[in-house]
């Protein structure tokens, strides 16, 4: 007997399970699907709460998690336990954050390494993947509630400039939220699809996608040929957006009312009131010429559109300069752009629309809701993957993820499942032990975090790595997958040129049922897998920390006081004890954090002593 699925919210028959499109944004996120009757994409508005879900996660004192609009209310009242802009942290190390590390109001752990950042909330440590999963979980639950049907599969969008690590982190977040991520799609590609561009395989177009959100801006130039989207160039600023418009208004009001900026910033209630009024003014001035309001009858919040445009002119000019650079990188003139697409709520500001249209010499497309356009495009891509659009040819894709084994028996993905073939991808690795001259490369296929749960395809040794301190050798591991599904894996040490490669064929050899079972297992065990991965990664970080601090004491102990040396030894022992007791990842990170905070000032002191010694007796001319 065949099963028939019925969508209870529409009463329509469903040919198969719903696949949703998700826009996981820095400021806001959305989920969309294709309506079963009119076949048009629609953003899901669950219980009339609006289509937009703020990308904010709040942890209560009781350990509960609140996501979305309700969580946003805690940004000022409880900033240490309220996480925002987590998308900025996906796939990033602390060093990647650079001068932007003070942008965040919550605690980001600095382990002074290339390891991925972790966020400390009370005595628990979260990865950006876990926090993103909370947002995706909320979107999934909203979709299931609105559609009255299970939602297990999704297409998720990312910025065109996201690297492999950031894309894999997004996939992992989806998996942890109980979603099988069928494809990661570039946001500008999704926006173009929402406008119907690229759906006809015979269409050839060059498109500019101008995306100005709440906290980020990027411009992408796309070439669309035979249904294939190629990113010709991207540019932008990941710390520029509509929030800057709000800040310009607030500063104007502070000045006009002769307020003291520091006093306003310290008064959380007043600063929140000003921010909300500024946001209201910005929205009002997009459709009216004047905005008038007050706070407590004493602070005048009057603003006219021409004054607003004067305030934001430098910000808009910065986005246009990025457009100019992107066009230069793509080696194109404005006349060669066939269409300009506007994405992001901040593009509703008339001055922005006019500036973009003027720069490209043609009216920009803004007919679709700019907040929803990326999610709508993701839903169209999901519909294509579901096989519901027979007029669109899908290229062959990899049925399972391909990757290699890393420290602790973890699987590091190189080519994610559903990647189009032929394809090439790679990652860079280094040694973990001083003087290491060989590196074992073990190739696996599967969706689980631990290699023991996946299928081993090949193994070889990269020999002859020059003997150097741990972390110095740079080994590129590349996967080249041809159109016949034959995988070539090559490893090359960049400093010496030492190279080794192996060909794996045929690389699949699994039945459809086995592939399906591996996918199901990856979703079913996602939470356990991530927990196991995080414990292994915490132990690896701890062991590296022990190694580095012990070496530092041996070489530079004479520059520390006896009390400092003793405290360092005590904290080293506490970390060893936690490892010996097989502590959970939070206990390990607490011990790491304690040791790191205590020893971090030492390196700077030793550096200053070394500089003084090196400069002794030398003249500076």
From TrEMBL:
Keywords: ATP-binding, Chaperone, Nucleotide-binding
PROSITE patterns documented for this protein: HSP70_1, HSP70_2, HSP70_3
GO MF annotations, alphabetized: ATP binding; ATP hydrolysis activity; ATP-dependent protein folding chaperone; unfolded protein binding
Keyword Lipid biosynthesis recorded: no
Stored Pfam families: HSP70
GO biological process: iron-sulfur cluster assembly
Highest taxon, organism lineage: Bacteria
Keyword ATP-binding: yes
UniProt xrefs under PANTHER family: HEAT SHOCK PROTEIN 70KDA (PTHR19375)
Family the UniProt entry places it in: Belongs to the heat shock protein 70 family.
Name assigned to this protein: Fe-S protein assembly chaperone HscA
Taxonomic classification: Bacteria, Pseudomonadati, Bacteroidota, Cytophagia, Cytophagales
Gene: hscA
